[in-house]
Structure formats: structure tokens, C-alpha cells
Amino acid sequence: MTTFSEWMISEAAIGPQNIQYDENGRPNFRVYIMNGGELVGLEMRQGGHYKFAGDMFSNIFGHSDLLKGHKIFNWHSELPEGSGYGPMFYDICMEIATSKGGCLASMTLVNRLALIRSGQDFDYEQSRERKGAAMGDTSDRAEPVYKFYYEKRGDVEKVDPGIRVANDPEQASKPWMYVMYRRTPTVLSKLIEMNGKGQPVLVSGMGMHATPITSMNF
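Now predict its structure.
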């Protein structure tokens, strides 16, 4: 089992343990949540102010009609590539999905569910062409995150929705793209705990309008 700390170290990723405070007690970065979790963003402290540095926004947010008995959530990352914040933000999004009674799902799975609902035939070449674009399958950049969850993360529960698509050659070779993921809120709980010990590191809203989040009821 890979612990949260090992996940952060192995991916050279940034997490709560990397938060540093200046002489005025302000953290070097903070996470903001808006629209009940549909938008999760990063602000970096620059010159005494916090400036937008990237976010993850929802493509699908609780569309339970796509899969009977489950709620599915998907976010698209616009975080700076190689910044090291990706793993923490994907964990946060998974925890938001879990707290809302659902699971994090890849865009590949979301598209297969939509395909089944519409009754259309699967077009493998079209899915490859649209990868990483609007209404396309999961990008090559995001796919390793789901693979890591599937193969390495013992603290992440995998939920198989039982979706089978005829003529999809990747379903057998890339099972991590066809299951859903959930985990007990750990990162969010840690950030909320840190809010009570100094300047807020988890906030609702942006910039000067940000207010500290004190519970999971955001």
C-alpha cells in the first residue's frame, strides 16, 4: 500500500507539508473552492498578494443519470505542467466527489457512458483524435494519474461500474480508465485543520474576497 506521503514523494509533488508562511503568517500558496466544488483553484502569493496560478474545473458534476446507482464527477486540469500541484489537486477533487456521495471518473469513462446512453456506435479513431480536447477522451497528461490510482494507491477505492463497450481495444489494456475512484477526505481535512492554526490555506472564493473554509460543507 502506498501512503499519501509516499505518493507525494514519489511524484515529486507539492502538498500541505510544503506550505510555508511569511513574516505576516501568510502561506506561500492556497487552494480555493468555488461553486460547491465545481472549481478548485490554486493561488500563489506574489508581492504580498495572491494571484491565480491554475485550476481544475468540472466537465461532469454529479450527472447520476449517466450511470444508474452512481454519481460521477470529472474535472479538467489547467494547472501548470510540471508544477507539482497536480497530485494534490486530483486527490482533492476525488475527496469532493466522495463527500458528495460519488466517485471521480476519467473523461474516457464519461464518454463511454454517454455513448451507451445515446445508442451510438463506438468510433475508436474519433476517440483518439479528440483526446485531451472538448468532449474527447482523457489526455495523455492526465492518464498516468488514473493509472497510479489503479496500480499504486491502496488508500483509494476502485469501483467497477461494469461498463463494457464493443470494439473498444483499450478497455482491456487500460482498465484504470474504466473504473471510478473514491477516498476518505484526508487532504481536505488536513487543510481545514491548518486553517485553524494560521492564515487560511483552504478558502472559498478568490483574492481579497476569499474566506476560510471551516468544514466539508462548502
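The beta strands are 29-34, 39-46, 49-61, 72-77, 103-105, 157-159, 180-182, 202-204, 211-212.
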